Amino acid sequence: MSTNTRISTLIAAAGLATITGTAAAQDLGLKAPPQSAPIAILGATIHPVSGPAIEDGVIYFTDGIIRGVMTRAAWEDLVARARWAQPVQLINAEGKHVYPGLVAPYTQLGLTEISSVRPTIDTTETGNITPEVRAVIAANPDSTLLPVTRANGVLTAGTFPTGGLVPGRGSVIRLDGWTMEDLTIADDVGVVLRWPNMRPVTAWWMTRSEDEQLKDIRENLEQIREVFTTAKAYAAAKSADENAPTDLRWEAMRGVFSDGDEESKPETKANQKPIFVLAGDEEQINAAAAFASEMGLKIVIVGGRDAARCAAVLKDQNIPVIVNGTHTFPRREDAAYDQPFRVPAELHEAGILFSIANGDDTAHERNLPYSAATAVAHGLPADAALKAITLDAATILGVGDRLGSLETEKAATLLITDGSPLEVTTRIHHAFIDGREIDLTSKHDVLYQKYKERYRQTGDLPRGKD
Fold first, then answer.
1. What pLDDT was estimated at residue 465?
2. d(C-alpha 282, C-alpha 192), whole Å
């Protein structure tokens, strides 16, 4: 049975949904083996992101770790002095560029496959308050969306649960591995909180009255306060007595507090995990910031449509923002047409740490660099845009010490390209995750070759195609 037939059966017959959904969602490619020998990439322009570009540079790595980023002269000097335990694999990359692997800061990669087919979606746990859920537990290492995404340079992703008021905890994954454990970089980067609307929706499609919506808003805000008050009391009790009864929900939230120390300030709590607050409107962002200040929480705003309007608050409280997409429409009728495109530039000008997410269906996560490129076209410096989807994204996710830039002792997760990743015409020639060279083939390549052969057989190749 063909893939198309399986998918048709899946939609038509609910009884076969689980079987066919699983079959249609499997990547049948082999995973990359561990790095077996030292690798040196020679002659490329190296873009560390954390520093200036190095023309005619060299980067070399062993055991999945970057050991040096240098000029050609420094490399030749090292070669003259070094005694290698085994031969070094040399990659001639003259005329090309080396970048860190791109980092998608907010996705559902591994948790969803076909958005219209429910059995392939595992983003939501039963219940409204489920902080004990970890996204990576449900991540599918054989998702066909992973090869498609990494083929365009995205090698690392934050994957987050959705649904409910507190849907669970986000994770950071590498986009290649045999098992869920292989994918995992950080299994718990912080709790997700969906902040409620702060004002009624008056759009034509809304069927609930303003009074009903206001009642829902009050109840949701009260529930948020109850959840965090209870979790904070639990954290204090467990800090005082580790033998106190354990509740898995509140145990999962202990990391967002600082050992019950109410006097300490968020910026001094180095080990305190953030709350990823889904909030787009100005009223939501301001309310979430005030609540975080009151409760002593560190937060990250995810969405951030009106983040620039809250710049003073965000700067004062050192709150980062994940801008969830630039390819969207303005929310307000009196807003400029390019308002969503300019949010990253406005945050950059305000000195606020931010990253850019794609904000589209998970199947389109490969388009992450173009969301950043749109921001460049509307005022964001190109180097800031690149940093927003590499080092700044990794920093916000809590893995900036391991990923996001080309520096000694960081993971050898990088790309060899023929141009900037922000350009649509750029091709990714090689990709490495932890020093392992990744197969960049995806179902898109297979389909391209399939239909190219069809045209070859009929002698009807499209003009300009070979």
1. 55
2. 19
